[in-house]
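P.,

For your records, the input lines for the assembly:
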Amino acid sequence: MALIVQKFGGTSVGTTERIKHVARRIARWKALGHDIVVVPSAMSGETNRLIALAREISASPDPRELDVIASTGEQVTIGLLTMALQEEGLKARSYTGAQVQVLTDSIFTKARILRIDDRKIRKSLAEGCIVVVAGFQGADSDGNITTLGRGGSDTSAVALAAALKADECQIYTDVDGIYTTDPRVVAEARKLDTITFEEMLEMSSLGSKVLQIRSVEFAGKYKVKLRVLSSFQDDEGEGTLITIEDTEKMEEPIISGIAFNRDEAKLTVVGVPDLPGTAYGILGPVAEANIDVDMIIQNAGRDGTADFSFTVNRADFTRATRILESIANQMKARGVIGDNKICKVSVVGVGMRSHPGVASLMFSALASENINIRMISTSEIKISVVVEEKYLELAVRVLHKAFGLEQAD
Amino acid sequence: MALIVQKFGGTSVGTTERIKHVARRIARWKALGHDIVVVPSAMSGETNRLIALAREISASPDPRELDVIASTGEQVTIGLLTMALQEEGLKARSYTGAQVQVLTDSIFTKARILRIDDRKIRKSLAEGCIVVVAGFQGADSDGNITTLGRGGSDTSAVALAAALKADECQIYTDVDGIYTTDPRVVAEARKLDTITFEEMLEMSSLGSKVLQIRSVEFAGKYKVKLRVLSSFQDDEGEGTLITIEDTEKMEEPIISGIAFNRDEAKLTVVGVPDLPGTAYGILGPVAEANIDVDMIIQNAGRDGTADFSFTVNRADFTRATRILESIANQMKARGVIGDNKICKVSVVGVGMRSHPGVASLMFSALASENINIRMISTSEIKISVVVEEKYLELAVRVLHKAFGLEQAD
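Structure tokens returned:
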């Protein structure tokens, strides 16, 4: 008998029919003798509806009051799911974040969990209940309602699993696991049985948005066994287990997957005087405007000037261009070039640490299809390139094949 | 400077536009230097939407979980209204029932308030905040969320006013006060400046559903000055003040108003053997079936049998008839007669205590229009008659005129 935390996302509980479906799935796990704690999100669309109401009142709503409103989405779901479990003949009981209590700091709309009191949950489990805890929310030490920010239900589930020392934290979503790449792009994409936390972090931040990145960090830190499963298939299968890296991994393939992100735009300040402080002079005002910067490259030229390039989210492209044009003028740079028809493609895998030649295989595969690389950035376990957007699917497919990802382990 | 509790019903906060309108009204009271505690209901339709969701899951939802869900309606409104007050440049802060805390018993879906902790509210008032407290809800001593049942926001407001020793509790609604009768039936119906708690109780229970009856009882018990006002008129005026009866009342008219109720049905068991225990034998099974009985009349006949009549809510008519037919058979009564085309009309007024002749004036007025009286029931401050439904409007109008209610005080 194990203690399992199961998290169900918004689409999994998007209608009362789907909530009943989820209840039947939980009932099957309970029938195996497990203790179950369930963390549902709000019904899909509900959080957006609530935030839209708030925006009708105020263009910049008070964060404390926004959390009072937004937290009701999950509160409705826990009640409905608990009822659905009772309809399956099971004992079940719901708790809001404040009731548990999930203690957070007071940074409304993006609070961080400080501590979870497990007493009420333990008591209800001991009484034979399935315990349904609202995701995404908590309360600060003054009893104010807080939310963890978008995707925070994953974090709630992992934090509960850590606090309860659960045997496993299962994240049910609309995919049946983590794939070597997006199956909509590469038909041969293969579900991974396991992936390391580090790889998962790189995959998440690169646009494979199956899990919220904070929850993966949290799971890694507290050594929570995390599993991604489908809530839409009748047989959820084994999903993908996210593991702490260990020696077994030496047997694993070098590359775990190909991640990509379409929402990129590239900006280059051309001919900046090559002096100390240039990077800060350019990126400081961009950061002040709350624009996130991803890849950064600086090439020193031979004429005492440098070209400074970076990528931003495509939504920030126009704003960033305007800021740079003003900076370029002040810095007496030659000009600003922008390109918002680019994308980023990355190969990710802990195996590349011990296997040289990953970069050259990647570049040769892209060259074989005449795909020009515009930027390159590397970390210990990933290599990212920026290419023209029109090559995205082709690049992902050629890399997937070059690294043999379509083959079973 | 006074401390005022203001309650706004569901239609008053039914849209974000109306919430902004309510915020501007509160701002005007605040500008007069008053301390304000606001108790809003859920946006109109919201509680029904939430309960419908629950019923999609379960035909008889768990009351504890139903309260978890239903309480979110008010939680959304307090957040929105607080934001709207902030948009008016005011300091404002929301509290759920559990946060305050409004301590209740554990009778989910119809909890009773036991105690209100006023510390958080006092602290926020002292900081210059308008305090917005969710109506309709509280929490029991284990921290479970409870609701007070339909219309419970009125009770919340009165209980808060009592706990805070507020100078006045203002109930904003879609009418501008309590009328001598329904103005849709009698064009000359006149708004009352004052009405006593006792009269209000009789008016409420008889179908003048402006205030929830429990809140009136509560206000009477704790001597809370209660005022009904319109939230739809730009100038809310003076509304109707609900007072504790005092000697001034000797000057007041004998009758305060004419109440009526269409949702009535009458049942008669004919020719029951006139023996002790008959009433219980008939009404016991009816009560067991959870059918509320209103007026009850028993006429002993000369042949050792009696006719036993009572009224029920029209929705229970068919069920009650079936129960009675089975009872009549067992009791060897002659039969059961039912009539669901009746209504009840009542004259209400504390003045009738000291003024004999009210009944005879009432009966003669009805007789003058050839309206046949089917049942009569009296209390200390009201006389009710059952008449055919088709005579309802005529009866109300003739009584309104007979008692001179169209004249100003």
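Two observations worth noting. Chain B has 13 helices and 18 strands. The longest strand of chain B covers residues 257-273.

Regards
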